[in-house]
Design a protein that fits this description.
Number of helices: 9
Distance between the termini: 30 Å
Number of strands: 0
Largest sheet: none
Structural class: mainly alpha
Oligomer: single chain
Length: about 210
């Protein structure tokens, strides 16, 4: 169980990327006062938490309703995470489309969009949660473990955004890129493992 908890934490920490979100947050909210920034952070975390918790609780039921096998979803999610990992390694942080980015620049409240989603609760995070939730069924109170890990990573994200100004000054853009690249390599390995596990499970189910 300890190995699963460690892997689940590492997966969600890398996907949510508290360090990599810092410069994006500064770009979107740096012109606001510290008080407004804290309000934006709180609301964004609450929105993301609602989305992520909902997927952890009801995601598998949604897959069954749509007739999608867990194995097929695992392969597709692995491919998606691999793409995100490649972007992290090459420091290409594109979590939103150009149209979404343009709209974000003129919005007064960015806590729901684009910060809450898709920057925090994005496709990669949702896919990871569904895979981890399926694996968690093998453990007692597995769902509770996943919810607890999500809450802990969101707490770390809250702290990193709250001190974003200081992190940016301390690490610099180069330091942030280096950390994101290292995390991207780890995420790539996890993504490949997801793909392998999904393919093997599909082969076993077929034959």
């Amino acid at each position: 169980m300890l190995a699963f908890i460690s892997r689940a934490f590492l997966t969600l920490f890398v996907v949510l990327d508290p360090i990599g979100l810092v410069p994006i947050f500064i770009t979107l909210a740096g012109h606001h006062s510290p008080k407004v920034q804290m309000r934006i952070i709180r609301q964004a975390i609450l929105v993301a938490a609602a989305i992520l918790f909902s997927f952890a609780l009801f995601g598998n039921a949604l897959l069954r309703y749509l007739g999608i096998s867990v194995e097929a979803f695992q392969v597709s999610a692995g491919i998606l995470l691999l793409k995100i990992a490649v972007d992290m390694v090459f420091a290409q942080r594109e979590r939103e489309t150009k149209a979404e980015e343009a709209e974000a620049q003129v919005r007064t409240d960015i806590s729901v969009f684009p910060l809450g989603t898709p920057l925090i609760a994005g496709p990669g995070a949702l896919a990871s949660i569904l895979i981890l939730q399926n694996e968690a069924t093998a453990y007692p109170l597995g769902t509770g473990l996943i919810l607890g890990i999500i809450a802990f990573v969101l707490l770390l994200l809250y702290v990193s955004l709250a001190i974003a100004k200081y992190l940016t000054s301390w690490l610099g853009q180069t330091g942030i890129n280096v950390i994101s690249r290292v995390l991207g390599i780890l995420l790539a390995a996890l993504a490949v493992q997801y793909i392998i596990n999904g393919v093997l499970a599909l082969i076993k189910a077929t034959f």
